[in-house]
Design a protein that fits this description.
By secondary structure, the chain is of the alpha/beta class. It has a single domain (about 5-200), classed as Peptidoglycan recognition protein-like (Lysozyme-like, 3-Layer(aba) Sandwich), CATH 3.40.80.10. The protein is built from 6 helices and 12 strands. The strands form 4 sheets. It has a 6-stranded mixed beta sheet. It has a two-stranded antiparallel ribbon with strand order 1-2. Strands 4-8 form a two-stranded antiparallel sheet. Strand 6 and strand 7 (about 95-100) form a beta hairpin. Helix 4 packs across helix 6. It starts with a helix and ends in a 15-residue tail after the last helix.
């Protein structure tokens, strides 16, 4: 539902409810409702993914998030057979943006997690997957798309923090990894340092 506030700040031009108008929409069944209607969606979690690891393109990530992955198509897929996960967004190597879950809903991207004193980060976060591999670098088009998406998300939701999967599940997850340039993202967004993981902060 479009409100007068949406019209004033231009949010309705970007958002159709919790769906980004510029994203390619593929609806994932791997989602649920937020636990409380009053839960503030104030965290963006950045991930990286490629299927098989280190191979880009081909649509396997989209297939995984929509439970359509052919488990027999590659030997690696046997190690994740039956996995049911999703993120809200996926940005491929060209910068193309895909959306799988309404941002008002709870995507299954974080798993067991905790950040800034709050556990179960799926409850209050929006998950963004970048096509890539831990330790490798990401493309300029991906940084551009990610910064634009973060700005758009902040128009609709009270974002206070942005962190990597590695920061909310340390020891269990390592993505997006050392190849991700947090300083570049911070410069692009021009957000204050306290929005970012402590280890990555720089004063602009």
């Amino acid at each position: 539902m479009t409100t007068s506030a949406d019209t004033v700040d231009g949010t309705s031009a970007i958002w159709d409810g919790g769906w980004h108008r510029q994203a390619r929409r593929l609806v994932s069944p791997n989602q649920g409702t937020r636990p409380h209607a009053t839960t503030a969606i104030d965290l963006i979690v950045v991930h990286s993914i490629s299927l098989p690891p280190g191979q880009f393109g081909g649509g396997a990530v989209q297939q995984l998030f929509t439970n359509q992955l052919d488990w027999e198509a590659h030997p690696y897929f046997q190690s994740i057979r039956g996995l049911q996960v999703s993120s809200h967004f996926f940005i491929d190597r060209t910068g193309a943006l895909w959306q799988f879950v309404d941002c008002d809903q709870r995507a299954w991207h974080a798993g067991q997690s905790s950040y800034r004193g709050r556990s179960q980060c799926n409850d209050n976060s929006i998950g963004v997957e970048l096509e890539g591999l831990e330790g490798l670098t990401f493309e300029p088009a991906q940084y551009s798309a990610l910064a634009s998406l973060c700005r758009d998300i902040a128009l609709r939701y009270p974002i206070q923090h942005i962190a990597g999967h590695e920061h909310i599940a340390p020891g269990r997850k390592q993505d997006p990894g050392p190849g991700f340039d947090w300083h570049h993202l911070q410069q692009s967004l021009n957000w204050s340092a306290d929005h970012f993981p402590e280890a990555s902060r720089r004063i602009l």
